[in-house]
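Data availability excerpt. The first of two example chains:
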Amino acid sequence: MRATEPAGNRSRLLHQVRYAVRHPERVPAHARRAVRDAWLRLRHPDHISYYRAVMASDAARSTEAAVGHNPSREQWARIGRMQFDYLVGHGLRPHHRMLEIGCGNLRAGRLFIDHLDTGHYYGIDISPRILLAAQDTLVAEKLQPKLPYLALAGDLTFAFLPDAHFDVVHAHSVFSHSPLHVIEECFAHVGRILAPGGFFDFTFDRTEGEEHQVLHEDFYYRTRTLTDLAAKHGLDARFMDDWERLPHRQSKMRVTATRDRARTVGA
């Protein structure tokens, strides 16, 4: 039985009414969030700036919730371990160079850093406050000798990163918060930074019905939409069926450069 089921359209009024009837205690918080998000969209018309402001607002209210400690530190650690075990099982080796998009406060990154050779982990995020939390994680885990790189990013063009450098690129819970033009920007440029035989894993919120978004924070896509978009930029994308057996609500895809189809790391 699949752990991950495709989402229905959560933006429809009927869904929202049913949800409110089942969970009336959550209605005030949702209403406050809707008003807050509408105000932030007026102030920040481009999505990256808008979502950076969302993260700053969440972190100001609760840093732990903003970096994935909600509902618990144990859940935070479990999801990080699940990401790590999956990638190691799919061929991530200590000598590989890894880029993590949306590294957050290193929920999985702390495990990747410890596993990889010194200097082989590069994490980027759009939130300065969350990157400071990532530094706190490095200190708590005593990972300073591994010399990871942590950088603030304003887009997904990767213009400041070298060609053909990363064996593994990883983005967990990034595209679930991204409109299609942001995902396409990533697809248009990620092939340049992938090393020969490298791959790019990402999760997304999957629907088999109408694609939609909720509060411009959560986006739901059909698998075919993303595979077609990847192909437009010379990338092969395949659905990772074995991830579906894990206890996580998002689905996962793997992207490789079409030219590297026969020599993918961890194939």
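And the second chain:
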Amino acid sequence: MALVPFDDRDGWIWFDGEFVPWREAKTHVLTHALHYGSSVFEGERMYGGEIFKLTEHSERLARSAELLDFTLPYSVSEIDQACRDTCARMGMEDAYIRPVAYLGPEQTSVSALNNKVHVAIAVWDWPSYFDPEVKKKGIRLEWAKWRRPDPLTAPTTAKAAGLYMICTMSKNAAERRGFSDAMMLDWRGYVAEATGANVFFVQDGVIHTPDVTHILNGITRQTVIDLAQARGIEVVVRHIRPEELSTFSECFLTGSAAEVTPVQLIGEYTFTPGDISLGLMDDYGKLVRRIG
């Protein structure tokens, strides 16, 4: 299937408070964000005309901007409405939504006190992050070469564009070797997350998931914890050493793009998608589509 470049599509993008034709939503090559990573973003999904956890995403966008030392020029409620309006303008009821906020080209230097904050929102069709047939069996991951950084070296709880470069490098390396994704450790050597999703493990009917004090606490992660607890399943949040993976029977990833995705392999460790991971995948699907 031919790749359709993202800069050459039909439609509209919400850009600094107004709609512009998709192909005209451009910024200058000396934009601060392009050179210094001063950009934050969100990834959201609309199901059946409703954006799931929209306000939580808009609030996180604002928090991420503040962590990078800039303030959005729009309120959370204004961002919420702009996301809805963009989906409506594109005529979509099932879509992926990408709000992004970044510093412009007024200064191209480390200093950015005079740079304007820009906000854009684009939506497009993105049915499944992983191949649906592969997802049913569980995806395969390798260990990433790169580690999530020490929170004293970077704003690790922000959804900041610059923090994703090591994710891109890790996922590219994994895909070249036939894997779907890569599992990352944190700077101390504990299991952290996949390149764009949080991770859960199952041991004797109990779910274990890494502490996210210093990484992104995914909105889908929080939702799945609630779903598990509603099923009466205990969820333990703790540091997890890589060698502990040999003691877990099931594994799955969560994220707005990944939704709930079972895992069959991480490096040398194997898992079998079972009642808990498949049940939560089903529960999440029913919740976001408002079934039952």
